[in-house]
Amino acid sequence: MPDTRFDQYYRYDALSAVLHDYAARHPALLRLASIGTSHEGRAIWLATVTAFELGDDRDKPGFWIDGNIHAPELAGSSACLYFIHTLLEGYGRDADITRCLDTRVFYICPRVNPDGAEWALSEPPAIIRSGTRAYPYDEAPARGLIREDIDGDGRVLSMRIADPDGPWKISTQDPRLLVPREATESGGDYYRLLPEGRIENYDGALIHTPPPAQGLDFNRNFPAKWREEAEQTGAGPFPASEPEVHSVVRFIAAHPNICGGVAFHCYSGVLLRPLSYESDDALPAEDLWVYRKIGAQGTALTGYPAASAFHEFRYHPKDIITGALDDWLYEQQGVFAWTVEIWSPQREAGIGEYRYIDWYRDHPIEDDLKLLKWNDAALNGAGFVPWYPYDHPQLGRVELGGWDPLFTFWNPPPALLEKEIARFPQWLVWHALLSPQLEWHELSATALGNDTYLIRAVVRNSGWLPSNITQLALDKKRVRGLVCELDLPAGARLSQGEARIELGQLEGRALKPASTFGWAGGVSDPTRNRAKAEWLVQAAPGTVISVRARHPRAGAISRELILS
Ligand SMILES: [Zn+2]
């Protein structure tokens, strides 16, 4: 077993080496392939993890997992690597992992955005949202503040500038902390805050903060209710315009066996679910019920609350987001998908219930003091840089300092990384095991005389979810039903029935009630998880025929029968 370290973040070459090492050491369980090439020409790696000797990956229900589509959200890659490591270590030892890899397949893309991650991991870090391609314009902004490590200490911090109109003042409780100036207050020392950087074409008076030259957001570029740039910042020129997004979309669309997915992001410590752009009222009730059950188990296994992106994770109460991967997986592929925001420094610091993005708009100063205390005790002060004077080439004397967010807020500090990403494997395995799964209930050939045989195939869904997965997939006809086929050799003849029979969807147990006492009396469980096909075949005794059942999501099974 390769000795992967989870107390560090991997740059591209090291990450690639780890993945190739896994593939070389575990050829029976992991195959590595590139699903596309990034803007800067890096291969986008995808690990297919399953017990290959028990069936081709495409014949098994699958589960998609990706990370690091946003450039600085590096712990997403780590969570994927850690999960792969857990699967490889656990196969043959852990009963759930073994069953899961025997019967299901994981498609894991640890770093969707290798270019942006490489920028974030360079020294000093260059922090952008997603892609490194200049967008929407080819050139950098002509004026305004360009965020960069201006004093060359390897960090991009904040600048505080004394200014009588500044909205901040130094806290009396902790001199490191800036707190809002009171509404009518005057006569004190006030500060303006800006990101560390230089000002292009500074006129000595006005400081603009233009959007970054690299304005793409890959997680707004998916074809889920995609909206143009004027409505959705970072959307890209057209749906799936960016090679990284296009690679993911093309791969998932070509793998209809994918029954669910998780996209790892940072941060907030929450399991987010679709829709992002519409109220829960827009979801079929059945899907909402199932989402809640999966979320409750997610909370039990990971410690993260499960929340609706629309109702609980809005950047502005009047804004929605569109073009996200989890929405596309749900809305277009019709499967249950999540955005997992890894890591919550607020929770680490002992700030109890907090409402994600809303917390940034408003929270008590006590919360900031708790965060500083946590920084001093748990991080040995590494997360917050005390303010220090700096002679800025354009602004004169300023102070640099403040939170160093990359490995404090945006990602777990390396020493706390493994503990954080160890939360997920159990839930991911459980989630994958929810999928529908085809199995033979009965397969028989009965001799009726005169070289005539009755072939009877009964197929069952042994999984928890129905074969269609979501109600939405059923309503919008996004998923084909079960197909049962007979393959006859030369000399055999079908005398009744059609060689290919369509059998529709198979029920699962996901929507069964919680009590055996139903609304109108007792509960009834007819065998809607089974389907039957029958054929009459004319063939000589000893003929070998083949029967195959396949469903785009629930898998494919086949068996040979010897007529006797
Ligand atoms: Zn993100």
Characterise this structure.
- It is a single chain.
- With 564 residues, the chain is of the alpha+beta class.
- It has three domains: 12-122 and 215-343 and 419-433, Aminopeptidase; 144-212 and 363-403, no CATH class; 438-562, Sandwich (Immunoglobulin-like).
- Helix content is 24%, strand content 28%.
- It contains 14 helices and 26 strands.
- The chain has helices spanning 12-25, 75-90, 95-103, 114-121, 243-253, 285-302, 309-312, 325-331, 345-348, 356-361, 365-378, 414-421, 425-433, 471-475; strands at 30-37, 43-49, 62-67, 105-109, 144-147, 158-162, 168-170, 178-180, 191-195, 197-200, 258-266, 270-273, 306-308, 336-342, 384-392, 396-403, 438-449, 452-461, 482-487, 493-496, 500-504, 517-518, 521-522, 530-538, 544-551, 555-562.
- The strands form seven sheets. Strands 1-2-4-3-11-14-12-13 form an eight-stranded mixed sheet, sandwiched between helices. It has a four-stranded antiparallel sheet with strand order 9-6-16-15. A four-stranded antiparallel sheet has the order 17-18-24-20, with no helix packed on it.
- A hairpin with a 2-residue loop joins strand 22 (517-518) and strand 23.
- Helix 3 packs across helix 13 (425-433).
- It is elongated, with a radius of gyration of 28 Å.
- It starts with 11 loop residues before the first helix and ends with a strand.
- The model has no long low-confidence stretch (mean pLDDT 96).
- It binds zinc ion.
- Zinc ion binds at residues 70, 73, 265.
